[in-house]
Each structure stands twice: as structure tokens, then as C-alpha cells.
Design brief:
By secondary structure, this protein is mainly α. It has 9 helices and 5 strands; from the N terminus they run E-H-E-H-E-H-H-E-E-H-H-H-H-H. The strands form 2 sheets. It has a 3-stranded antiparallel beta sheet. A two-stranded antiparallel ribbon has the order 4-5.
Length: 244
Amino acid sequence: MPGNDGATVTDAYLTWATQQPKPLTTDPYLAYRIIPERKNVARRRTLHRADASRAWWRELETLLLAPDEHGTHRRPAIFDTLNDLPEPVRRSLRIRVHGFDQDGKVIDRQWYTAITPPLLNFTQEHDPVKAQRIAECCREAEHIAQRLATVAKQAWDTATHSRTTQPSWGHRALTRYWPKAEKVFWRLVQEPDTPACTAFADAAAAALREITEAARIRHTSAARAVAHAVRDLYRRPTPPRKAA
């Protein structure tokens, strides 16, 4: 890009190409998602995509658990070396998380950053019980969120008989649920004997009742539909029967 005088360069574009296959390399500061069903090894490991609306604590399972060949997520490889730090450093060291949320059309959306509390002493290598408890709570929070989205939509369809084009209760319920779930999460980390599934179901039920309060007061059908939805939040899936 020429300068105003036509004799200098102010910027430049650099392009490159290669006729050789790209090497299978990964960035040690990035988290990856493993897709085992893909046969192509090069495509089996993909970036764990950033999401500006997703709270960082929901990624703690990925950050704390040690690499597992059967796992679906891989923490940043730098964590494998951080575990060798002296204990006083591990007790105080915090992690700065950066994310760049960008849509498929390459339109910039949002940079975000967050700083974790000291958590290296809770990695699976140093405190496997705490790490597994945190992972359990992360999984239960996500599971209940999926259940909430499903039952909220079903309740909306039942209450309105699908005669409206307005958005269902699902998105609004999740918006209320996640701040409640974060508070529940940190409480559960300190209460290892409290059932995580029930605690997160309580948060989901409260969120659903809050966003449907007006509808439940006006319409009996809405009250009945929400009552069924709340009941389903606490229902655990029946484990499959083992073959004889």
C-alpha cells in the first residue's frame, strides 16, 4: 500500500501457499474438541470454539481434567507443564482466558477476557476428588440446561397449541437459568455430598417459573404445562437394561 508521496510503503498484504500437506500441529494455549467418529485424523481434533455468551466456569471440566484418550475435550497443553510448578505458586496462580467470538461470515463480534480464581491445585493430577466433583457439576449444569430448553419449548407448545410465531420460553428460561446455575455451581464445589442434579434442577425450575409467571396467572393451560415441565426437570433418564 503506497504512502501519500508515492515513494514509500505504509502497509502490505502477505499471501502464501504450499503444495505439501499441512503438518498436524496444535497450539498449546488452545482447548480442543475431539470428534472420534471422524476417520480423518487431521479433522478429528477441532478448536473449542469461543462463545461470548458462555461463562468461563462452564469450561472448568476441560481445564482441570488430565488428558484422556477417550475424552471429548483436550485442555490446553500448557496445563501439563503448569502442574510442575511449586505448590506455593500453584496456590496463587490464576489463568487469564481470552476469546474471540466471530461468526461464519468473518464479521467481528466480540473480544472477551476473564481471570479465573487460583485453580491449578484442583487439577486432576493434584486433587482428583475435587477435579471430578467440578467436572460432575459442569456436566450436570449442561445436562439440566438441555432439559430446560426441551421442556420449556414443550410447555410453550402445549400452552399455546403452537398457534403463535413468538419465540418459545426456551431461550428466556436459559437466560435466567445460567446466572442461577453459576451460584449453584460454586456452592456445590464446597458441598461434595449435595446431589448436583437436584440443585441444578431447582435453579432451572425457578427460572422457568419466573419467566412464565404472568402466563400461569392468566391461563390454566399454561400453569398445567409448566407444572408438567418442572416435574420433567427432576426426572432422571432410565438406564438401559443390560442384555441377559
